Amino acid sequence: MRWRVEFTTEPFGLDEAPAHAVVAWEVVEAAGPDAVDVGPFGDTAEGGADAVLGAVDALPHRTLTAGATRISLQVDVVEEVDR
Fold it and tell me: Alpha carbon of 65 to those of 31, 33, 42, 69, 80: distances in Å?
């Protein structure tokens, strides 16, 4: 299965990316998804279940520790693979 996680950390930084946002990107990249898209108001990553769930597992602890006050996550199955 191919999965997608959409995530946002707050508070937003207008002049530069806050530390918690940088940590979020590092966590997601380290989980090994196939694709990552960083946007101004939200980010997405797509890949296999292990990569996406690995990122979802680590995001709250790591970003809250880095100064986030709110994290929004949405996980979707974007493609089913026939077995």
Answer: 18, 23, 19, 9, 34
Q: Please give the backbone phi and psi of residue 56, each rounded to the nearest 5 degrees, phi first.
A: -60, -35
How far is the CA of 28 from the CAs of 14, 31, 49, 77, 79, in angstroms? 22, 5, 13, 17, 20
Residue 21: Cβ within 10 Å count = 23
- How large is the C-alpha radius of gyration of the chain? 13
pLDDT tens-digit profile of 40-62?
778 999 999 999 999 999 999 99
Residue 3, CA distances (Å) to 12, 19, 22, 56, 77 in order: 26, 26, 22, 11, 4
